[in-house]
Fold these 2 entries.
Entry 1:
Amino acid sequence: MTAIGKTARTQRAVERACHEGAKLFSEKGYSETTTRELAAAMDVTNGTFYYYFPSKEDLLRQICEDALAEITAAVTKAVDGAESGLDAVTQMIHSHVRTIVESRHSHTTMLTELRALNGEHRVTIVAARDRYESLVREILASAKADGSLKTSIELAPLTLLLLNLLNWTIFWYRPNMGLTGDEIADRMVTLFLNGAVNPA
Amino acid sequence: MTAIGKTARTQRAVERACHEGAKLFSEKGYSETTTRELAAAMDVTNGTFYYYFPSKEDLLRQICEDALAEITAAVTKAVDGAESGLDAVTQMIHSHVRTIVESRHSHTTMLTELRALNGEHRVTIVAARDRYESLVREILASAKADGSLKTSIELAPLTLLLLNLLNWTIFWYRPNMGLTGDEIADRMVTLFLNGAVNPA
DNA sequence: CATGTACGATCAAGCGCTTGGTTAACAAAC
DNA sequence: GTTTGTTAACCAAGCGCTTGATCGTACATG
């Protein structure tokens, strides 16, 4: 239990902590970020941070949990209305990329700072992440099953390679680089489905 | 100045520091690794580490520098004997993946802990990394120029997507997972060149 | 309407501990 | 006997987290 979710004010403070925390953690790293910096970004002193969170690590857990819930919900909804296996794959790629670039701080934190979590915290998040990756794998399995995708690349490596293609984006994407998440996703879909070789 | 590269013994100690440092940094993170842990892995005390390195950050710089020199040399050599643009792309993918999985600790460190470097150190490494990415871009540019690769994906995004596909591997590859670097690279080549769609 | 009070929220200060880095003295090695 | 290598002990700074006191506001009481 993350303490004291009573008043609306408290809820706003917790949200603010998650927002500023994700920003700092993704830019500087979890352990390079001090609770005093974090508190300063929230316009309070560091004692106040501990009024809302039992520990710095608990804030990290909260950020990771929220990020995984967000992307799981987004992709689940996106493939829900898909008309074919190939359509589902396309929708998944768009939904995944749109989510991680629009909430890039929290997703960068979740993807790169997970190892700072210990014990129960870590187990919980790793389990949620495994569940999300299973979702991706099942979408690819369906597309293979209906004959859309070739069988020459086995399911497990294919899933890993797709996640490679999608996730490394967090390291170079910037909001003002002149390419939206959907424009990036378009190119990923073309590449993932048809490859880069000139068909002519 | 990295001190005293005089004797063979000194050189061995420096190599040991790089080896153990890359292992610890890639597994626990740079700032979660203490100089005492590092020294213990070298079977000395932390004072001795400072006999060989002026600072902890300097060890990180050394590891990153070596990793970039290694992969740049490997890929340069691999594409040197290529007979076509397509062949060069294939050789590059194999060479890149083989290098990062065989020296995964140092390459993971270089790819994920770079932000811990400050000032001059950082500038130097970022420049070397940019040079390597230019090399990859030029290999793709040649393959586009000779008509091997389609033009519908622009050069810059295509380069980024290829690096996505290659680099995220560091997060899941383990030596005993039953898939060698070359086997992974084979699947990447298939996917990158021809895509995952069933041609039938 | 004024006033007492209870409570959520905040702060300044600081505690105990760890960190990167230093140093004086000493041991091997050539 | 000087150079090269190693150590134990140490330091200043910074860390996560705690604490006792205080502020501000909502509201019951007189």
Entry 2:
Amino acid sequence: MLTISMLVNDPRNLPASVETSVKDNNDMPGHLARRFQQIAVAVFLAEVEDAGFDLTPVQYAALATIKANPGLDQVTLAGLIAYDRTTITGVIDRLVQKGLAERRPSSRDRRARELQITDEGRRTLRKITPAVESAQRIMLGGLSAKEGEELMRLLRKAIAAGNELSRAPQRDAQI
Amino acid sequence: MLTISMLVNDPRNLPASVETSVKDNNDMPGHLARRFQQIAVAVFLAEVEDAGFDLTPVQYAALATIKANPGLDQVTLAGLIAYDRTTITGVIDRLVQKGLAERRPSSRDRRARELQITDEGRRTLRKITPAVESAQRIMLGGLSAKEGEELMRLLRKAIAAGNELSRAPQRDAQI
DNA sequence: TACTGATAGTCAGCATACTGAGCAATATCC
DNA sequence: GGATATTGCTCAGTATGCTGACTATCAGTA
């Protein structure tokens, strides 16, 4: 199939005066990162909806982290899953509104809110797990198991090196 | 440093009754995809701002694609860079508002808008290129050149397999 | 040519994500 | 103890990104 992009990407089809400094999108790690994430989110939402639930990737990550760290505050949660704290405010709003989590004032620090998962949240998390795992498999569907592992290794390595470059770096919770 | 996440992630520290079905975030390709993209966007914006410009990743991709395919319509643009057409509407609005692109009714199809880059847009693209290329290098900074290539190869492969799974798949322009 | 379906673009609505600012409370330092 | 800095959270504002719906137009066909 002959396409415009084949024409413009082939130097022989361009007059000498046309600048070709703009690289192909597929050579840009930033573009590939966005595309992969775009697909990952779509797959996640589709699998979760098929399972009969209405939960976004962030909401899932937040809920799972609250369950694993009962009583943690919002800033700690944000650090554990590497989201900006201003984003987390809205995410928690929606988890609370759906009855999956609770937000109550901390007794030790009156600025902080302690987060707890509800029974309903625990039930949702348990029932949604197969869909989440299925989504993770599907988004690596084009790769062999070995390639999938290697992709994840390289992503982890690049992320570790760039962790401090975003406003919401990953932070382990301090004891 | 002892951290809460070390505790909760170590099965020896958990009573037998605690379910550990929720995998670590770092084993989830979806989470890694979001983190890498988050860093990529932050690096892009920082480099571009350092160079004295105010352009987002989408705006850059759209502008570069308009320059390479003068007169294309919005749906074709959306397909080339794999964005939803409803997103592109707003992106073009802002490019036009900044004086970097023009949107005029198509003579062949009265539903469509033909997109053109302005001289100012061309100038901006030319001057911004070093910052964009620098950003691409920085976001792979933790990897060797070989690893960077391999990461991009694996991303391309996974994306190609999942292309149809998002609402905005990549589409080549038809002649 | 009239009908039917598909397509280009926009809009309303929702949920991320970010910047920057602000308030209240805590921690630190003198 | 009191001034200062820091921290937890929220809010306003902006830009993606998506779903679903709508209008205007085009294309194919009976």
